[in-house]
Automatic annotation (TrEMBL), chain A:
Keywords: Membrane, Transmembrane, Transmembrane helix, Transport. SUPFAM superfamilies: MetI-like. PROSITE patterns: ABC_TM1 (PS50928). Belongs to the binding-protein-dependent transport system permease family. InterPro entries: MetI-like, MetI-like_sf, Sugar_ABC_transporter. It comes from the Bacteria. This is Carbohydrate ABC transporter permease. It is a multi-pass membrane protein. Residues 66-277 form the ABC transmembrane type-1 domain. It is found in: Cell membrane. The chain crosses the membrane at residues 12-36, 70-89, 96-115, 151-175, 208-225, 259-280.
TrEMBL record, chain B:
The keyword Membrane applies. It comes from the Bacteria. It holds the Pfam family OB_MalK. Belongs to the ABC transporter superfamily. InterPro entries: AAA+_ATPase (IPR003593), ABC_transporter-like_ATP-bd (IPR003439), ABC_transpr_FbpC (IPR015853), ABC_transpr_MalK/UgpC-like (IPR047641), Mo/tungstate-bd_C_term_dom (IPR008995), NA-bd_OB-fold (IPR012340), OB_MalK-like (IPR040582), P-loop_NTPase (IPR027417). Gene3D superfamilies: 2.40.50.100, Nucleic acid-binding proteins, P-loop containing nucleotide triphosphate hydrolases. One of its GO terms (molecular function) is ATP binding. SMART domains: AAA. This is ABC transporter ATP-binding protein. Residues 4-241 form the ABC transporter domain. Keywords: ATP-binding, Cell membrane, Membrane, Nucleotide-binding, Transport. It comes from Kaistia terrae.
Length: 289, 363
């Protein structure tokens, strides 16, 4: 209670408040503004209330895109997190191999996203692509332009190729911070390889895994560029995820109101799910105490 | 419990060691008797930890054999050796409770659960940790964590030996005394062979029946604390053990007379004339140097330190420094002081190693 109260301190946080206002709050508010109005062009707006939100939440198109997003993120997490851990565990700890490995692993992360999409678009083509043509030559019916399953397969493999190394690098950073004495003690205690992983390596990777899961979830849930370049959301609507649908709605059909409402719902879903992941994982770390 | 023999053991970290300096551990033969309490004492980097890790099997020696009770275990992995080792920094399994931590070495060896429970509770009682058994280990203090590490070392009843690698480094000084005496008691009770690595002489001398002093990958002396104090086999042992350390200075020795800067000092035993290229030194503990007026080596008293229970006089003789320990209350002469050495405790060293003289004929 005896803390001195000094209102001048507000001036010190003012720059940050302004920056956040201009970079995040104001753009978000314009979106909120669009989401509650309707327009027929000529810059004339009419109050629409929560109509767009209700329409969006009832729209089967939105539900389908959301379901595609959830399935995509789930598959990505289920593949990339264990794979990243396995890759990190098998990376060398010392010698020249370390730098070679790190550079090779970092390469996919350095490639611009639409270039990644282009690479796989060409790679998977049945007529000239190495992957597509090889599969066809082997007698496997593969065509990501025609078959939705093949399209999903291509996008998932592409994302795994693009982002698993991020998970692996994060896990590797966690692994190398474990002192040698832990491994020595485990040998003295007669621990099996699995016990070493379960009781030493995994607990030490806990923090970085939390970051990896959050990053990979958010990124995969908001994915746009790569599937857009490879499949354009097709065949049909089979790879049309929320972000691609949103662009179609806002830029293609110029339905500003519904698009704005969809953006806000999309944003809230990402926020909510990230919060759930964070809470669950930090609780697990604390052992539910 | 076992007797451990090291036969012609040596270790080099690099592939082709060039000369003695290429070895982290120089060739040595050594026996740890069954049930003995040993301390491995030496400065940092002298090969103590290497030797310990060779015994536990974390390192495979490049030369020689490690033998437990007559069985060659040199190529056996750590898990198969029945060795417990406690490290310098606490190693605990974060996600487990204290109980599970202590039970871990037993469960890995498929000990039946009732036996695990009995043993864990016994060790927890000894370490005074019964009230935290159900707590998760990660939230504990460094002291408690190291007690868990100790406990995991002690929990197995079948171990051949328990190795301690500076285990009390992170422990509070007060608790250190307590844990050290607990370890000592435990040794008496259990009869395990224990090897305790430290660079702290007090720790070594209070814990061990026998102290092994190492220097630059070599065992320079092994003996009881008293032997190390009275007859250091190497000048290094002389000033590493004891506070202040032994006085060592160059001298010419011929027969029963040593000459230091032209001043003769009588020796208790007769020594041959050393070869010209050898370094001959005289060593005497500060406890056996007496300061008197007008007798002995003429010295100047540079300063007197009063450490409470005794006094340390820092003397200079020519450009040599000599320390002398005197009981509390001793008055030192202001001028004309001389240092008198107790002849029975004068040791002669050639190239750092103690030499035994022949009994002097007219002693």
């Amino acid at each position: 209670m005896d803390k001195p109260i000094n209102q001048k301190a507000w001036f010190l946080v003012l720059p940050v408040l302004l920056l956040v206002a201009f970079s995040a709050v104001i753009p978000l508010m314009t979106v909120v503004n669009y989401s509650v109005q309707d327009t027929f062009g000529n810059n004339e707006f009419f109050w629409a209330g929560t109509a767009w939100f209700e329409e969006m939440l009832r729209s089967p198109r939105f539900h389908q895109a959301l379901a595609r997003n959830l399935i995509f993120s789930a598959i990505i997490l289920v593949i990339q997190i264990p794979l990243g851990i396995v890759v990190a565990l098998s990376m060398p700890r010392k010698g020249v191999g370390v730098s070679i490995c790190l550079v090779l692993m970092a390469l996919p992360l350095l490639i611009p996203w639409n270039v990644v999409g282009t690479i796989w678009q060409v790679f998977g083509r049945v007529d000239i692509g190495l992957l597509g043509h090889t599969l066809e030559a082997l007698g496997i019916d593969y065509n990501y332009v025609r078959d939705p399953l093949d399209a999903w397969f291509t996008i998932i493999i592409m994302d795994v190729w693009h982002w698993t190394s991020l998970v692996a690098l994060l896990c590797y950073a966690g692994l190398v911070s474990i002192p040698e004495a832990y491994y020595q003690a485990a040998r003295i205690d007669g621990a099996s390889r699995w016990a070493v992983f379960r009781y030493i390596q995994l607990p030490k990777m806990n923090r970085v895994l939390l970051i990896a899961v959050l990053l990979r979830f958010m990124d995969s849930f908001m994915i746009y560029t790569e599937p857009f370049v490879v499949t354009g959301g097709g065949p049909g609507n089979s790879t049309t995820v929320l972000s691609i649908d949103l662009v179609k709605l806002a830029v293609g059909q110029f339905d500003l109101g519904p698009a704005a409402a969809m953006s806000i719902i999309y944003f809230l879903i990402v926020l909510l799910l990230s919060w759930v992941f964070y809470t669950v994982m930090t609780n697990y770390e604390r052992g539910g105490q | 419990m076992a007797r451990i023999d090291l036969r012609n053991l040596a270790h080099a970290y690099g592939p082709n060691p060039q000369g003695p300096s290429g070895y982290a551990l120089k060739p040595l033969n050594h026996t740890w008797e069954d049930g003995g309490a040993y301390a491995l004492l030496g400065p940092s980097g002298c090969g103590k930890t290497t030797l310990l890790n060779i015994i536990s099997g974390l390192i495979t020696p490049s030369h020689g054999q490690v033998v437990f009770d007559g069985v060659d275990v040199t190529s056996m992995p750590t898990e198969a050796r029945n060795i417990a080792q406690v490290f310098q920094f606490p190693v605990i399994y974060d996600t487990m409770t204290v109980y599970d931590n202590l039970a871990f070495p037993l469960r890995n060896r498929r000990v039946p659960e009732p036996a695990v429970d009995a043993r864990v509770r016994e060790i927890a009682t000894m370490l005074e940790m019964t009230d935290v058994l159900d707590k998760r280990a990660r939230g504990l203090t460094a002291d408690a964590k190291q007690k868990i590490s100790l406990g995991r070392g002690l929990v197995r009843s079948d171990v051949a030996a328990i190795l301690f690698d500076e285990p009390l480094t992170v422990i509070d000084p007060q608790l250190k005394w307590q844990l050290r005496s607990q370890l000592k008691q435990l040794h008496k009770k259990s009869g395990y062979t224990m090897v305790y690595v430290t660079h702290d002489q007090t720790e070594a001398l209070t814990f061990a029946d026998k102290v092994v002093v190492m220097l630059e990958g070599e065992v320079v002396q092994m003996g009881t604390p008293a032997e190390l104090f009275e007859r250091p086999a190497h000048t290094f042992v002389g000033y590493f053990i004891g506070s202040p350390g032994m006085n060592v200075f160059a001298a010419d020795v011929d027969g029963t007379v040593a000459t230091v800067d032209g001043t003769p000092i009588r020796l208790p035993r007769a020594y041959g004339k050393a070869q010209a290229d050898r370094k001959v030194e005289l060593g005497i503990r500060p406890e056996f140097v007496r300061v008197a007026r007008g007798e002995g080596l003429p010295v100047t008293i540079r300063k007197v330190e009063d450490v409470g229970s005794y006094k340390i006089a820092r003397l200079t003789f020519g450009n040599r420094e000599i320390a002398a320990v005197a009981p509390e209350g001793t008055e030192f002469p202001a001028d004309g002081a001389g240092a008198i050495f107790d002849p029975a405790h004068l040791n002669v060293y050639v190239d750092g190693h103690l030499v035994d003289g022949a009994p002097a004929r007219e002693a």
